[in-house]
Amino acid sequence: MFDWLGFRKGLPLWWSYRLNRHLKEDVEHIFEGIAHTRTELLRSWVETYWSHLDRLHAMLSESASTASQNSQDSAVIQKMLTAALKSGADFSEIFILNEKAGVSYSTYPAHVGKTYVVGSGLMKGLEETRKGEKCLFGPFSDPLTLQIGPSTSPFHDAMTMAFILPLVKNGEWQGAICGRVPNDVLGDLIQRESGHVYPDSGDNYLFMAKPVLNKQIAPGTALSRSRFEDLTFTHGDNLKDGVRTDFGTVGVKEHTELELIFTDPATGQLHPGVAGTIAKGSNLFVEFPGYSDYRHISVIGKGVTFQLPHCPDIWGMMCEGDLEEVYRIRSIDWKMFSLQLKFIVGFILLSGGGFWLLNGHVSSGLGAAITAAAGAIYGWIGSGILRRKGSKPVVKQLAQINKFIRLNAEGSGDLTQRLRVQEFAGDETRELAKWINNMIDSLEGIMLQVKQAAAEVQLSQDRLNESTGSTEQSTGRMSTQIHNMIRSLRGQLRDIDVAKDVTQNMSGTLRELEEKASDQIAVAQDEVGRIGDKMNQISAKVAETNQTIQTFLLTTQEIPQLLKVIEEISAQTNLLSLNASIEAARVGEHGKGFAVVAGEIRKLADLTKKSTTEINETIEQIERHANEAFLSMEEGTKVVLEGTQIVAAASEILSSASAHDTMKTQVVEEVVALMEKVAGVSKENRQISAEVEQTVHELLQDMLHVRQTTGDVGAITQSLLQLMNQFQLTESRIR
């Protein structure tokens, strides 16, 4: 019946559970609600902090696309990191890694320059992001986290969670944006200490359910700080001093995370709550006898497994409370019934005594008087006891609760105050006080978030005001420049229109000139053709003359041979005449007539010789002049040939000129067509310039509206902060 608890420990627990078994459904709802709200809170928190890095990434990308890498850019990037750190209050550091895993920028200057190598704490997470996906890595121990200091958690050690967003360009890993969060922040999220429903024993803790990336972490290993780690919340056994059990001492040296594995000291195996949650994915157990935890104490609660956004590992969370505390309640109804039962027993005893007295021991009158007096005294004392032990404590506690609620409802709104649960009896009033504390704690957490959000809105609004002012000035300067540009553009468009008209006029003039030139070129081509024909005729005549002169020269070359024959004949004739004279002289008188004839013949021979000599000289002169004429004719022939070539070239030039005129006409037509297109574009540019001018005007109006809106937002934020300041909040808590 009492299972592993044994009779001595089991009996009181069984009695408590038996008396309050009707609360089982409520207890189930309580643990289901705690588990659900805590897991959703974790997921929402992780998504929020991924969004901080996403916005930072977007701003860095936009900055990189419009600027070069220089010192000014470094200052801008550093400013962006600082702003992101302020927005994400749980971050203790934001830093950027380059492609060699070296720290290029960081909100913690001492970290700049460090390079992460294989085997370093962050390297597994970086390797995961080389796949191009985000990675929530941890928890892991990093001394730098301890050195940097806490962000929002009142507890702080070296345990770290890292948000790693890869920087990828053209499919290549170029580095990462990393956000460092002290791991105790997660413990604060799920524990919310002042709002614990079961303040004495309640604990919500994380453990490894299924390691995927961190395979070195065994299932069942603690991933968050336990509220029983030290004496902060409890004043008994704790993990730092060592929790003593009948089977040994359970403890940690530095921190709960990764040092503690949730095993049952009696068996050395994972305790049933954790083991059942890992096996089933979800485990709810709120009945007697509960199950043994790492302290070998009976606990009940809800276990769930879940996966945080971009975290490869599957985690588990236990929401537990000791069975004794959960079912410790003793109802007002039970208390009143106990008192009434005692009062009835007393009344029965008093009635029996009265009956004994009236049964002859005393006179009936005296017995009746004694019985009436005893009844009156017993009734007065009994009613007093019932009031003092029953209704008065309840009224007092209700009055205390009423006062607490009244002060928060109509007073200063002091949300730092809590009801002292230990001052309430273990009945419904204590439960009411616990849930009021839980509600106030939740309300304070919400109000703190609203206050933080309002402060961030105000900070963003201030930055927006500053940016709006700068943008307004820039827009004004841009407007002036655009007006100047549009004015210049309109002047250019007017010039284009003039150029178009001039081009069209030039086109007409060129067409007229082309027509005249074409006519003149046609006439010139005809004249050149006729000249060419004449030059061809001259060339033919010159050739004939050259041929005649050559024939004449050949003929004159034959004359000297004939003259030579004549000279020979003349010489022979002269010789014959001489012989005849000699014979005539020898004959005497009879030969005188023959001698005269012979003399005449000799004279004729001499004259022939002289004439032949003159003819030779004349022929030599003729031959010389003929050669000179031949040479002159050859020169003339060359000149005629050159003239013919010139005429042909002139004809070709005239033809080319005609073709060039056609090309010029085509070019002019193309220029005219281009100018018409330019004119068409100019019309569009006129419309665009008007639209740009209107857009700039609208932009200026929008900037005025933005300034007015930011002013309204600022006023609303101030009003919201004033409303928030009406509540007293625990400033050390962020949630």
Automatic annotation (TrEMBL):
Keyword ATP-binding set for record: no
Source taxonomy: Bacteria, Bacillati, Bacillota, Bacilli, Bacillales
Family membership: Belongs to the methyl-accepting chemotaxis (MCP) protein family.
PANTHER family according to UniProt: LYSOZYME-LIKE PROTEIN-RELATED (PTHR32089:SF112), METHYL-ACCEPTING CHEMOTAXIS PROTEIN MCPB (PTHR32089)
InterPro entries: HAMP_dom, MCPsignal_dom
Record keywords: Cell membrane, Membrane, Transducer, Transmembrane, Transmembrane helix
A Pfam family assignment: MCPsignal
Source species: Paenibacillus chondroitinus
Principal place of residence: membrane
HAMP domain mapped to chain residues: 392-448
Methyl-accepting transducer domain residues: 467-700
Compartments, record wording: Cell membrane
SMART domains xref list: HAMP (SM00304), MA (SM00283)
Protein name: Methyl-accepting chemotaxis protein
Alphabetical list of Gene3D superfamilies matching this protein: Methyl-accepting chemotaxis protein (1.10.287.950)
TM spans (from-to): 339-358, 364-386
The keyword Transmembrane helix appears for this protein: yes
